[in-house]
Amino acid sequence: MTYSVLVVDDEAVIRARLKGYFEKEGYRVIEAADGEQMWYEFNRQHIDLIMLDINLPGVDGLSLTRELRSRSHVGIILVSGRDESIDKIIGLEMGADDYVTKPFELRELLVRVKNLLWRISLVKQAELAVAKALSQPDDVICFDGFQLELNSRKLRDGEHVIKLTKAEFELLVVFALHPQQVLSRERLMQQTSHRNQDVNDRTIDVIIRRLRNKLNADLFVTIHGEGYLFAAKVDD
Q1: For residue 81, which of 9, 34, 102, 167 is within the disulfide window of CB 3.0 to 4.6 Å?
Q2: Is residue 70 packed enough to be buried (19+ CB in 10 Å), middle (13-18) or exposed (0-12)?
């Protein structure tokens, strides 16, 4: 599979350098000098990842990042000539996936691109798996006296409906589809349908604590140093 990378930088030399290097590595590279050209290229073709310079003429890279994230889940790597932590923090808060400073090593940037595209592919696989599970005619998973209704997105304890947030429901579906298996926090993060900077180890721990309070704490076993195991026996 050939990935499409959009390089957005007002310096033609940098664009040419990145284009030449990444095309040799098998990527399809499109160039843009500012936000207007970026939107033109982004709207007319499929883009897998954007390398976006912060200091652009006109609309800056941070504002473009925020708008991009509101429209899509495209991978975003911010590039800046300033090595200031506040820029990195703001960029990640706006929705960027990664951040590099100039001058950068092309090999390091290549590794960052590969890792980000790999994480994106895992999220897409997880979304397809959940969508497939939700599309099955038999949409009910039963365990420990509970009924998890996938299509209606409900959890029942007999006649009582237990209210779950979207994050709680999605994580419970992952556990129910993988009973008696140790799932790492990294894998659980990858199974969420939304990839963003707010999902981390701490978030997973908080969601599981809420599930323990709403269901049965013994169902979610902590395997120290490895992750969590869903101890319920799921009915076939």
Answers
A1: 102
A2: exposed
